[in-house]
Write a structure and sequence with these properties.
CATH class: Mainly Alpha
Radius of gyration: 16 Å
Largest sheet: 4 strands, antiparallel
CATH superfamily: Winged helix-like DNA-binding domain superfamily/Winged helix DNA-binding domain
Number of domains: 1
Number of strands: 4
Helix content: 25-40%
Structural class: alpha+beta
Order of helices and strands: HHEHHEEE
């Protein structure tokens, strides 16, 4: 697991650390489902008698931390495969990835096909 810097690890929520670890592990142009982060977090805290769907109680926290990370520029929140603005309400099914430019904000290519 890629460790955040010391100042980051002191301020990041454990859920945020798991989200960052998973999107970095998945790599560029790939994404994770928020439930993957919730499951990983629940697995790390599970006790013997916990129900198998313990991860579900962490989904709200994962979405909140994903918004925080997206607003800081650490990840992108995707809807239908496209990044969405984390400063407007995000509803429905989402995925999380390494940062991507918002639609309409990409740099135009020059005539050689380079940015």
């Amino acid at each position: 697991m890629e460790k955040p810097t010391q100042s980051q690890s002191e301020t990041l929520d454990p859920l945020a650390e798991i989200i960052l670890h998973l999107v970095r592990q998945r790599g560029p142009d790939k994404s994770i489902c928020p439930s993957e982060a919730a499951r990983a977090f629940a697995e790390s805290r599970a006790r013997k008698n916990d129900p198998p769907d313990l991860w579900r109680r962490y989904m709200t926290g994962v979405r909140q931390q994903a918004l925080f990370l997206a607003r800081q520029g650490h990840i992108s929140i995707l809807r239908k495969g496209k990044p969405v603005d984390p400063f407007v309400p995000v509803k429905g099914v989402i995925r999380l990835s390494l940062p991507r430019p918002l639609p309409g904000t990409e740099e135009p290519e020059n005539e050689n096909g380079q940015s």
